[in-house]
Each structure stands twice: as structure tokens, then as C-alpha cells.
Amino acid sequence: MNPAHRITSIDQLEAIYGHPAGAAVWKEIDHISAEYRAFIEAAPFFALSTCGAEGADCSPRGDEPGFVRVADERTLMIPDRRGNNRVDSLRNIVRDPRVSLLFLIPGVSETIRVIGRAAITTDPALLESFVFAGKTPRSVIVVSVESIYFQCAKAIIRSKLWDPARIVDRRSLPSNGTILAAITKGAEGGEEYDKAYPERVNATIY
Predict the structure, then answer these.
(1) Which of these, 52, 63, 95, 118, is most buried using a 10 Å CB contact count?
(2) Are the beta carbons of 48 and 101 closer than 8 angstroms?
(3) Are 104 and 111 in contact (CB under 8 A)?
């Protein structure tokens, strides 16, 4: 990158892009309206962005539609389902509560963006209310919503994300076992790892 063309100030940015107007501004509100609630409750997936001492993190979160509970117009509750136990997002939230969420709904081109502050709770009654498939989450993330708005469809349209003709065959990419074997120089991963993976996922999904 040529340093002479690097953007280093807000003034430079605004000289190129100008200022948002119209729907780009009107769509942002500080609470979960009935319309935005409908989108959140229909979403089986969202990406959770956090930041902490080690830097930024973005984590995928998914379950049956409605797994993100709209407690009230300013509060979302999210069960922390079983994962890889790295807890990168949770570590960040403990030290810096700022979060952002991006909700996706299959077949829908608009996404929903939420910005707020999060806390982690192990309240027994709340954990019990999120039991699914006989499994209780270890914690619940409670998000206090500060801003919410829809993102227009352009990115999804350009990417053709929901176009069945664009579905990628997983076998065309390196397998998880192949990736681990390359990183560990054969000490971990490999063909046996891949063979055991489907059963391992099914056994630990919740």
C-alpha cells in the first residue's frame, strides 16, 4: 500500500464518502421495535463481535430460530451453548462489555445490527429457562441494547449468499484434519480426526 494514499483522518473519509442521509439514518433506533424483534426471533444465526486486552474477536452463534430471547425492548438474552471452550468472547466481555451483533436469516437479504453492552450471568433460574435438548447452558449473555438497525441488502445480493447455485462443496476445501495436520506437522489431525468428526459433533452439539 502506498502511504501517500492512506486515509488517516475522519475529514479525509468524509471528503470521499460524504455523510449518511435518509433511511441510512432514520433506520437506527435505541430500542427493539416490534419490527426489529420479528427479525431477531426469526434468525437462527448471528455473529458476536467483542474486544478485549488481546484484541478484537468475532464468534459465530447459532441455534433454532428464537434462541436469542428478546426480554424487553432494550434487552437480549443469549444462552452460551457448548463450543470449543476457548471462551474468547466471554473473556472479552468480562473486561470490556462493548459488543455488536449481526443477525442473518436464510433467504433474507437484509441483516440486523445491534450495538450494546453485555454481561454474563449464571443465575440458576435463567439458566434453567434456556434448557434445550436436556442440556443447560453454563451461562447466559445479557445484552443491553444501545442501537439497532437493518443493514441494506447490497452485500448479500452481491455475494449471492443464499443462491443454491453458489453453494460450495465442503470437499473442495481443506478438511479440519488436514488443517490441523499441516499446522502441527502431523502430530494432530489427519484422516482419523476427520473420520471421527461427525460423531464428535453430534455428541457435543449441546
Answers:
(1) 118
(2) yes
(3) yes
Provide mean pLDDT across the span 137-149. 98
Mean per-residue pLDDT, 32-36 = 98
Helical ranges in 3-87 per DSSP H? 10-17, 23-26, 34-42
Are 31 and 74 a contacting pair, CB within 8 Å?
yes
| Secondary structure letter of residue 29 according to DSSP | B
Nearest to 32 by CA among 84, 87, 72: 72
Three-class SS state of 58: strand
Q: Which residue has the cell 437479504?
A: 109
- Listed in sequence order, the residues at least 6 apart from 115 whose beta carbon sits closer than 8 Å to its beta carbon are 99, 100, 101, 145, 146, 147, 148
Q: What is the overall mean pLDDT for the chain?
A: 96
CB 81 within 8 A of CB 63: yes
The conformation of residue 89, written as its DSSP 8-state character, comes to: H
* Distance between CA atoms of residues 93 and 85, nearest Å: 15
Please tell me what DSSP assigns to residue 14.
H
